[in-house]
Input
Amino acid sequence: MANPNNRKYDYLLAQNEKYMNLTALTFGDRTITYEELHDRIQKYAKMLYQKGIRENDVIGVCTLNTPESVYLLYALDMIGAIVVGYSPFDSKERIKQDIAMTNPKMVISVDMNYSNFKESEKALNFSTILYSPLMSSDDLKLKVGYQLLQLKNGNFTLSRDKKLGHLLKQNTDDVIVPKASFEKETLTDILFTGGSTGVHKGVELSGEGINHVVEGMRYMYDYDWTGKTYLGNIPFGHMVYGRVIMHIALTNNMTYALTVKALPSDFYSELVRTKANCAVGGPPHWTSLIEKRGDEFVPRSDLKKGSLANLDLATSGGEAKKTSTDDAINQALKYCGSKTVLGDGLGATEAWSVITLNSGKCYTPGTIGSPISTIKMKLVDPVTQKEIKGDQPGLLYISGPSVMLGYHQNEEETAKVISYDEDGTKWCNLGDYLQKVGPNTYKYVGRLKRNFVSGIENIYPEELEELISTFKEVKEVVVTPIPDDIVQYVPRYHISLYDKNIDYTSFEERLKALITTKLSPNWLPCDITYYDEPLKRMMNSKLDIAYYQEKDKQDLKEGKLRLEESKKVRLKNM
Output
């Protein structure tokens, strides 16, 4: 086996050396072998080096799940660049903020996102390489239509030196890419998270960390990965979980079946089309396999018997799945011929995603499973900071090679979560409460984090509250999540007004316009409750969020909250 204490690309190459004839990637009707994969990674590395990228340069990427994105990420690691992941789904303002925070030398992006940052190119002094997500498509008509659309949307450049396709045609035969150095706990990647406080932060990660996650996950399964197919639907350019799925698939000599059809509405058809053996999705992906009849959840009526017979491993991630839908999802999997049950676990960007797994040989219903073999865990009393040895709930601290280096240019936030033992062991407090319920098995109790998922999007209440507070009418605001079995949660706004005699229609129209522009429609509420008195606070003067969560439960129980219209907004994007 390859040594995980290495660069990501070197670890990949060592794992693939005996399997170069196997299929590494599929994209539509195209197949790419491991030999072709490594040839193209090296070709891309030469092109990028010729373009001026050097070891330790900060390079931003804004990608979709296409073959070119895979080549770019590993080529950049081969050179030794520090890769920053920007989301192609973020607003123009958010992308500009992230670029300003990380100060890249270059941004490599799918061209459909160019209008979101091209105005910043000169001001922030970075260069750009653009490429079409349809570069590997053979559909000429689709390509022409796409290019016309990008021209219309302002995502077009006449500069050939900015176009990936043109750069790849240049002669690089004489280009020699120096071997990048390797040193443990050296920054290789920056990926963004809302974290335990909802504050948007860049998480600094080391390259060997993701290798150790692969090692730890491999140990958790009694499974022959070689030659099997992993569905590549989770975005890997900016999402840490997607990056891990890509790396575990390719370093285990699997076929990574790329798809840009990543929405829950496409999930079943993509599982069937790719004949996936392994797949990961958020709860909305898996609930797309079921429907509600009366008061019960049941498998979708259009599922085909035996259609998922190849599916050996099914995992839910990104947000806690709901027990109310588990049985129906597992019934759907069984009807479709799969012998697996839906697993999950616990993860965080701060640990290269995977911390525990409730899947494979560690599956225990009602738990989050066990820590992967490369992670150490302890539960701590939040008051005394002493380790809890029994079965009482405690605050989770983790240690291991996959734990983050810190938050980018944010020593204050880093100091809140990173601490060291007397022996120098580094621990990270993720703000989650767990309870030990068996030998090396844990139950999830709750979180200090307030973020939640609405439809297919992460919602960070603190960020939303800050935006709402910019309205002069607003004195205070608390955003709470209203649970739903299909779309996970829908925000509710509790707003204290300075003066209750306002034009509510005008206010809500302006509020909706700002939130839709700055964030997205998924951040809009199912309900706005107004108060003309100050919001309730605790003895420590902090807003009593738990008070409003209890109010939500009571109002939901009494039928005062209606989610139908809000759900329609989420379901359109699912």
User: Anything to note?
Assistant: The two ends are 40 Å apart (CA to CA). The longest helix spans residues 34-50. The chain has a mean pLDDT of 91.
